[in-house]
Amino acid sequence: MPISTEEAAEALKNIALVQRRASILRGYERGAPHVILWGLIWVVGYGLSDVVPSIAGPTWLVLNVVGVAGSFLLGRAAVVSVPMAGEGYGRRFAALSATMLAFILATYYVMKPRDAVQFGAFPALLVATIYTVLGIWRGARWAASGVVLGVCTVAGLALFKEHFMLWMAAVGGTTLLVTGLWLRRA
Amino acid sequence: MPGEANDLIHQPLRLKIMAALNGLVARESMDFTRLRSVVEATDGNLGAHLSKLEDVGYITIEKDFIDKKPRTRVALTREGRKALVAHVTYLRDILDGVGGQ
Description:
The complex is a heterodimer. By secondary structure, chain A is mainly α. Chain A is built from six helices and no strands. The radius of gyration of chain A is 19 Å and the shape is elongated. Chain B is α+β, with helices and mostly antiparallel strands. Helices cover about 55% and strands about 20% of the residues of chain B. Chain B contains five helices and three strands. A three-stranded antiparallel β-sheet of chain B has the order 1-3-2. In chain B, β2 and β3 form a beta hairpin. The radius of gyration of chain B is 14 Å and the shape is elongated.
């Protein structure tokens, strides 16, 4: 049975839509473990920053190293079962984490935050922005999570400044954990 | 590769299945539940169409157990990939006014 021009166009459009949807879902699946990892890191890091503020610096130093190493291992594990797929995937995820950390440190150096709250809020707002921008191109779940994280961070600054670290441990960390689980279930 | 119409692949859900699997690299497979989400089909409907594609050698279906839970994974064969590429070329030729109708 001959295929009309309209049918051909519709079929090609559906192919493109399905391939985009598959790519988005694959991105969610691969990103989920990393988001969960950093959610746990935020719970521990912000939590300790509230309970023992004097060791906040060393705490975050250790946790960030754990995060970068964890990103590498998770990225590598994601492609173990798929030969020849994503060579260097683990290195790229680790490089992504390291680059973000370098940007944060460079911004601290330039902007010279005045207090612990500013030190704590900036990374969260950066992650929120990155997720939102990522979501514009790579799936609405990223954008939704970014917006929620951004709103929660600003709400913490406005309403709970005195307990901001605890707020970020509970709300920020939980947002990332829930995001990771939500991405995994997509 | 010259275009070639393929009525079996052209069925809307089967076309979606082939397109979704074509995005994977060689030797990579997709979980049945993930494929169901991607093509937005029911279990029964998806299963029926996968059987048809497997019968002609366009896909492989592997079943195993992970932590005692059954898992089904689907992958495109080389023949399936070639057939899809030929059919897509055929569709594009129609739009270019080269052939088809």
